[in-house]
Amino acid sequence: MNSKIIFFICSLFLYMSSLAQSEIYELRVYDMKFGVSEATLHDYFKDALIPALNREGLNKVGAFEESGESLPKKIYLLIPYESMQAYAEINDKIEQDGKFLSDSEAFSNLPVDKIPFERYESRLIRSTWGFPNLVKPDDALNQFELRIYESSNEDALRRKLKMFNENEFEIFENVGLHTVFFGKNISGGQMPSLTYMLAFKDKAEHEKAWAGFGKNPEWKRISKLDEYTNTVSDITRVFLKTLPYSQL
Question: Which residues belong to any copy of the NIPSNAP domain (predicted)?
């Protein structure tokens, strides 16, 4: 068999294998209404939605709010799925889950003026081979940094993903940047883009780790490579803290 054909088949196999092993993360961002109690949303998450997800085997559901006092307030929900198929199947099951429907009845029947959020955005993120699985951080790491890297086009994003997969995760580990999840955005706003989350104990640890990253010799080397120039056009950074019922 022609060597080019063999190479193509092997490359295709590796690509399909990586897709099969990819986790899917749903990141929901709720824009809260000013002056309306948010307690009903927290009760819905804590007593209805998260228990329903747990019954389907999803036991690392993260719930966060922003560390600052920004307005409008935002609530973040992170739901990890084993695959895109699991995402579809589990959501279908929950819609027919009698206990979930019963537990969420009070929230579902709220008067319009008592619904605590305006809208929520749902983003789907697919993990990559360099960091394929969400990692639950140690309990002491209860502060989080969410980062979204936008790229000017798909090629720039491809190159930035390659940079992470082949180099940056190892540097992160070496300097003490604790990755929770990482992936390529496949739906939602700010496309094309990637999203990842870091966990840290406090601001001092966070600043020390990022300073070490900037000084790292390997980072200095790869950041100067032509292949990785102009890969990021904008960065969104949000600091989060866990809500009491979060499982991360």
Answer: 25-100, 144-247
Residue 168 falls inside a structural domain: yes
User: Which domain covers residue 177, as residue numbers?
Assistant: 23-242
Residue 107 CB neighbours (<10 A): 18
Distances (CA, A) of 84 to 20, 89, 111, 123: 9, 9, 34, 13
187 near 123, Cβ under 8 Å?
yes
Q: How many domains does the chain have?
A: 1
31 occurs within a structural domain: yes
Q: Are 146 and 195 in contact (CB under 8 A)?
A: yes
pLDDT tens string for the chain (248 positions)? 554 454 334 343 444 444 457 999 999 999 999 999 999 999 999 999 999 999 999 999 999 999 987 788 999 999 999 999 999 999 999 999 999 999 999 999 999 999 999 999 999 999 999 999 999 999 999 999 999 999 999 999 999 999 999 999 999 999 999 999 999 999 999 999 999 999 999 999 999 999 999 999 999 999 999 999 999 999 999 999 999 999 99
Residue showing tokens 């032509």: 226
